[in-house]
């Protein structure tokens, strides 16, 4: 009993490593049913007519790439399939490269044209001030796009003057930017807002869903996997659910095992 209670932590690490690698080698898929929170975003984009304008704010950096980049890619594929205009931006200084790569690769896959079907505005510092400025005039907030093109000359922004003119806004966040979008933009300029976030901050977002300040939410890798399932394009998020689920099961078994040994040892004494 004492030997089991004092088990070498390296043995636990070996079990965790096996739980991660075996599903990747065997390659089995688990069902990923979509929740109503994820379907809220999917249904909203599906309801938009051609040439609608969607603003996606890529407010994350490489540290949270594994959770949020699959969300971004799945969203972009859905948008381009629906023939809506995509306007990308970021309020995170580490998000420019990830956002530009995602939006460019997805656009090229669907033969979409930069400036006409999509644009990446780039990074702007200030967060709340940027949102307020965009609410008044988007061309004042972003005089040029990420590549230096004057935004006033971009066909993709035709008919858009401010945040109020977007048919949908989505924030993909690893920090507190979702709350800022709600407080400084949505409530003042009245547009529909969806969000995606890392799993660790998702519990803080559910009150905004219940108050209808968010019409949908993708949470962590599971939220990305649900969206991939909805658009029938299973990719890295769905593939990542098998090792993630295996590790979760292993952690639960370790907890049960440890508590069982603890109570048995206490009863013995």
As for the number of domains, it is 1
Number of helices: 11
The proportion of strand residues reads 5-15%
CATH topology: Rossmann fold
What's the name of the CATH homologous superfamily?
MTH777-like
General description of the model:
The structure is a single chain. Helices cover 52% and strands 12% of the residues. It has a single domain, classed as Rossmann fold (3-Layer(aba) Sandwich). The protein has a six-stranded parallel β-sheet, with helices on both faces. Helix 2 (9-26) runs antiparallel to helix 11, helix 4 (65-81) runs parallel beside helix 10 (220-230) and helix 6 (128-136) runs parallel beside helix 8 (177-189). The protein has 269 residues and is an alpha/beta fold. The model has no long low-confidence stretch (mean pLDDT 91). The chain starts with a helix and ends with a helix.
Descriptive keywords:
single chain, 269 residues, alpha/beta, Rossmann fold, six-stranded parallel β-sheet, 6 strands
Task: List the topology elements.
Layout: H1 2-5, H2 9-26, H3 36-46, E1 53-59, H4 65-81, E2 85-90, H5 96-109, E3 118-123, H6 128-136, H7 138-141, E4 168-173, H8 177-189, E5 193-197, H9 206-210, E6 217-219, H10 220-230, H11 236-268
Parallel strand pairs: 1-2, 1-4, 2-3, 4-5, 5-6
Helix pairs in contact: 2-11, 4-5, 4-10, 6-8, 10-11
